[in-house]
Design a protein that fits this description.
This protein is mostly beta strands. Helices cover about 5% and strands about 35% of the residues. GO terms for molecular function: actin filament binding.
């Protein structure tokens, strides 16, 4: 255009000129951050600016300059992600964590609009105005367009581009109010084959990626737990360890952490894994670990000390693959018929030529269960495995035989098991069989479970203290279940005898000590944990005082497994009790006051297996499984019951707050079940269905005292349950108690009582030595103060005195700390947590650390340990099983009776299934100069008892062959401790030489009824000396045969008597091998009978 157009005020041409200048100088020419040198040459200015914005705001799908900006949130994200300034190192507390820190780039210092994701999209003008004002004030980006215009979907793209083109060149002004974004672990995600349920293989690196872009800033920690429960931390670059150092907490400044470095202690087994930050725009980490055993592994991924979405991940690690098509199986245990319940049977699996692989056998009973038949696999050597099992149920069983994870030909096999009466399979359980707790006039009930025990008659007999028979009610409720009950009339010892098919069942007779009727009760117990629960989840109940005197409380759990118990004294006459059952079944929960069971104790809790897709600790996560939730509101009167279906349920409202409820005034709370699907709501109170998936609930307290509300899901308490609600009298008024939800007062200050500590590292039991663990210190509600941590071990753990334990502390951005440590040995540990120089109420934590291994659980078996002995020069082996024994090095030593090595070809093979195969070849140990002693008789050879005299003098009797015959001592240790039965004495026999076995004096013809004699010379044949002779007649019936012991230097005498006429077979075997010439034919003839001879006249 010409200057005349400008002078004349041609607006259209002037605007075109301005746009051309903007396009050329603001968008086309400058090189922006993270842009390749020639990247912009192949793009239009519009594409170039849009690409830069997309790179800066990867969280949002921005594809244009009009519609995608209409809610104002995109502007907030751009301002937050593009606040340019000098390069800043995030340091220890950030996403890079101990890996050296992650740097904010020259144009990446978030904090001007950290809450843009929470902005209301229905307020676009307000959102845009806040973002544009922050950009104007602190980035120097003038508002060349109004907020009302930029959120208009019909806005001119050129205007928006003109405004946005200023951001790449913007600079952050000093003093900008940058606000940190709190970490959001739920937004971190992990993906990759290393966390897939299937597909990972032993000793092959498993890899996956952790993406933390939308999760904020935090430390990434990864723990891998193998099927035996041993945990290893997946390590990144070496991180500093932290001593007892104060950490300052304040609402605004970044905490200053005092670091005391210590050398890293890995323990006995350094982890073969690593976490590597990729330093990319999505803030991803590459994680690699190497599984060492097959089976189900648990991979836990933590961000800022909390599990990310989906963590922990279940990863089933398989063994190295072989060729299952070359494997065969046969034996009586695979025959379609002929096997009987409760009788052991077997079959052999032949794997020769199939390559490396793992043999697996899974037996499914007629009920579809895989845990009722115990399977024992034995390596017989020469690529032969013997599977022995004992079915307990009658009916068709399915046997799946796999090799390297693949079924072999003809698998699965169907085996029909015949019925057998098996009293040992009967189980009886219930309160009426507990040794203590039953009182006079109580209805003592129990159940007898006979399913799988075959056919039989149930008989239950009860004898009272005087020996007289008492009445018992028995009801058959079907499916092999019998319900029994009795009512004891007098105190004393009762005996319950239970027989099935005329035989006593396990533990019968049961002795029950019946106590007198209880007096006034000092405490009462209630809650879902006294009725049932779920395996692996805490079962909770509440114990409350009834009156002013309580006495001494005690708790014990009896059931299918040990259950860890925790008791939390609330300081108000009540305590929360929880226990962790690890196996399903019926548990007896004893609540004892002053060494006496309280009323209704023991409580019988039915613990069920953990259902799939159920997470009581994540109550807002919806699933497709419909279960039930119950709430109990308990003052001194009867409990209030509430049932809500499904998992996505939460309860909130003033009726659940610690303070604020008043006598005779309605207490309200809401149950939100919008993510729970459809189902009935049962409530013994006033309830209103709001019609949107929520329910409004009201209860009216009648006494000025503490009320307790329990909210449980599927028998398991949900987070924050039980709720304790303080009810005050009506004269106090409704506004006396002032506070915020959770009981946190408004205002600043230090509150050590509000510090929360949780995690596996502070659990009282369950920790193992030399395995990494962690716990979290939550100070988010404690106000200002310093945090101090101290960990000590008791004398005798690492030395004769008490010692400090090194640990690593990580500051998260949400006022929480992750503390990592590794216990160097078994014993007692004490963890102290201080806040503002005051010990928090739950400190100190007393931790019991178990040994990392238990040699008493290791078993060794196989032909290489057989007491019958091994042969010189013949390879042999045995197997060491370490399942359940923890992690420790296996050591095998061989001790002979003479100088020199005792074995050759010694090898220990890790089978990666918690077992090892030990292979060796025993060696002969001849002596150079000896003098003979008294002869030592042997069934196969004559050896001289010799004594060592000198070296270098030749033996003067070469016709006598000398061997050092056993015993060989096999010493097996695990973690330095001998395993059971170690050392194993093994007799070493000379090498087998069948050519030296001679059969002498055996005639080819024998007379029926006459004793036939011959000899077997076995001197010098070596081996174990097991001589066997078998004689078979023409009818294939065995003929009695006697083998006598060999005199010193002589042969074995053998005698037999033929009983029928015809050809006989004499089979001679030595150590199970036929001797040369065997079998020998012998023709048996009838003796001559002159009476049957007649003369004929010719």
């Amino acid at each position: 255009m010409s200057g005349k157009a400008i002078v004349d005020g041609n607006l259209k041409l002037i605007l075109g000129l301005i746009w051309t200048l903007i396009l050329h100088y603001s968008i086309s020419m400058p090189m922006w951050e993270e842009e390749e040198d020639d990247e912009g040459r192949h793009q239009t200015p519009k594409q170039r600016l849009l690409g830069w914005i997309q790179n800066k705001v990867p969280q949002l799908p921005i594809t244009n300059f009009n519609r995608d900006w209409r809610d104002g949130k995109a502007l907030g994200a751009l301002v937050d992600n593009c606040a340019p300034g000098e390069e800043r190192d995030r340091g220890h507390g950030g996403a890079g964590g101990t890996n050296g820190g992650e740097k904010w780039g020259r144009n990446c210092a978030p904090g001007l609009c950290p809450d843009w994701e929470k902005w209301d999209p229905n307020k676009p003008v307000q959102n845009a105005r806040e973002a544009m004002q922050q950009a104007d004030d602190w980035l120097g980006v003038p508002q060349v367009i109004a907020p009302e215009e930029i959120v208009d979907p019909n806005v001119d793209e050129h205007s928006v581009m003109t405004y946005l083109s200023q951001f790449p060149k913007a600079k952050l002004r000093p003093g900008a109010p940058l606000r940190p974004r709190p970490p959001q672990p739920g937004r971190a995600r992990a993906y990759g084959p290393g966390i897939e349920p299937q597909g990972n293989v032993v000793l092959r690196p498993a890899q996956f990626t952790v993406e933390t872009l939308e999760a904020g800033m935090g430390e990434v920690l990864v723990y891998v737990e193998d099927p035996e429960g041993h945990t290893e931390e997946v390590q990144g670059a070496p991180a500093p360890l932290w001593g007892i150092s104060p950490v300052s907490l304040s609402p605004h400044p970044v905490p200053q952490l005092c670091v005391t470095p210590f050398p890293r202690f890995w323990g006995l087994f350094p982890p073969q894994a690593k976490v590597v930050p990729n330093n990319d725009k999505k803030r991803t980490y590459s994680v690699t670990y190497v599984p060492k055993v097959g089976g189900l592994h648990k991979v836990t991924v933590l961000f800022a000390g909390q599990n990310i979405d989906g963590s922990p991940f279940g990863v089933n690690v398989g063994m190295a693959l072989g060729d299952a098509s070359k494997v065969t199986a046969r034996g009586p245990g695979l025959e379609p018929v002929g096997n009987v319940a409760n009788k052991a049977t077997y079959f052999d699996i032949y794997t020769a030529g199939a390559g490396p692989g793992d043999v697996g056998v899974v037996i499914t009973d007629p009920q579809g269960r895989r845990d009722t038949v115990e399977v024992m696999l034995e390596d017989k050597g020469d690529n032969v495995f013997r599977c022995t099992y004992r079915p307990v149920l009658e009916g068709p069983h399915t046997i799946c035989v796999t090799y390297a994870g693949t079924q072999i030909p003809r698998s699965p096999f169907t085996v029909n098991v015949a019925e057998a009466c098996t009293p040992s399979a009967v189980r009886a359980t219930g309160r009426g069989l507990q040794p203590r707790g039953v009182r006079v006039q109580d209805v003592a009930d129990f159940k007898v479970l006979t399913r799988g025990a075959g056919s039989g008659d149930l008989r239950v007999t009860l004898r009272g203290p005087g020996g007289t028979e008492e009445p018992v009610t028995v009801r058959d409720v079907g499916d092999g279940v019998y319900e029994c009950e009795y009512v004891p009339r007098v105190p004393g010892t009762y005996q319950v005898s239970i027989t099935w098919g005329g035989y006593a069942i396990p533990r019968s007779p049961f002795e029950v000590q019946v106590s007198p009727q209880p007096g006034a009760q000092k405490v009462r117990a209630w809650g879902p944990g006294l009725e049932g629960g779920v395996v692996g989840r805490p079962a909770d109940f509440v114990v409350e005082a009834v009156g002013t005197e309580v006495g001494t409380l005690g708790f014990s759990i009896e059931g299918p497994s040990q259950a860890r118990i925790e008791c939390d004294d609330k300081g108000d006459g009540s305590c929360d009790v929880r226990y962790w059952p690890t196996e399903p079944g019926l548990y007896a929960v004893h609540v004892v006051c002053d060494d006496e069971d309280i009323r209704d104790s023991p409580f019988m809790a039915d613990i069920r297996p953990a259902p799939p897709n159920s997470w009581p600790d994540k109550v807002m996560r919806p699933t497709a499984t419909h279960r039930s939730c119950c709430a109990l509101v308990v003052p001194c009167c009867a409990p209030l019951h509430l049932t809500v279906p499904h998992l996505g349920v939460k309860a909130f409202g003033p009726g659940l707050e610690p303070t604020g409820c008043i006598v005779d005034r309605p207490a309200e709370f809401t149950i939100d079940a919008r993510g729970a699907g459809k189902g009935p709501l049962k409530l013994y109170a006033q309830v209103k269905d709001n019609g949107d998936g929520t329910f409004h609930c009201v209860y009216v307290p009648t006494k000025a005292m503490k009320h307790t509300v329990i909210v449980a899901w599927g028998g398991v308490n949900t987070p924050n349950s039980p709720f304790r609600v303080g009810v005050i009298g009506g004269l106090w008024g409704a506004g006396v108690a002032v506070g915020v939800p959770g009981g946190v007062s408004v205002g600043e200050g230090s509150h050590p009582s509000r510090v929360k500590v949780h995690g596996p590292g502070v659990e009282k039991t369950g920790l193992k030595a030399n395995e990494p663990t962690y716990f979290t210190v939550d100070c988010s509600e404690a106000g200002q103060g310093d945090v101090s941590i101290g960990i000590k071990c008791a004398p005798g753990v690492v030395g004769p005195l008490e010692a400090d334990i090194d640990f690593d502390i990580i500051k998260n951005d949400n006022d929480t700390f992750t503390v990592k440590y590794t216990a160097p040995g078994a014993g007692l540990y004490t963890i102290m947590v201080l806040f503002a120089n005051q010990e928090i109420p739950s400190s100190p934590f007393r931790i019991k650390v178990d040994p990392s291994h238990d040699a008493s659980k290791v078993k060794a078996e196989g032909p290489g340990l057989s007491r019958t002995g091994v042969e010189v020069g013949t390879p042999t082996h045995f197997r060491v099983q370490t399942r359940g024994a923890g992690k420790a090095p296996l050591d095998v030593r061989f001790v002979g009776t003479g100088p020199g090595p005792a074995v050759a070809d010694f090898e220990v093979i890790d089978n990666h299934d918690y077992s090892y195969t030990v292979k060796y070849t025993p060696l002969q140990q001849p002596y150079g100069c000896m003098s003979s002693g008294p002869p030592l008789e042997s069934p196969s050879t004559t050896l001289c008892l010799v004594t060592w005299r000198c070296v270098g003098v030749p033996w003067q009797h070469p016709e006598v062959e000398l061997f050092l015959q056993g015993p060989l001592s096999v010493v097996v240790t695990y973690g330095g401790d001998p395993i059971p039965k170690s050392p194993f004495p093994v007799t070493v026999a000379p090498p087998l030489q069948l050519g030296k076995v001679k059969v002498q004096g055996l005639n080819s013809k024998a007379e029926v009824g006459q004793v036939q004699e011959f000899q077997v010379e076995a001197q010098g044949a070596g081996g174990q000396g097991q001589l066997e002779v078998k004689v078979t007649g023409p009818s294939r019936r065995p003929v009695p045969c006697t083998v006598g012991p060999a005199p010193p230097g002589g042969p074995h005498p053998v005698t037999f008597t033929a009983t029928e006429e015809g050809p006989h077979r004499v089979e001679v075997t030595y150590d199970g091998h036929p001797v040369p010439g065997s079998p020998f034919p012998v023709e048996a003839l009838l003796p001559p009978d002159p009476s049957k001879v007649s003369m004929a006249h010719v």
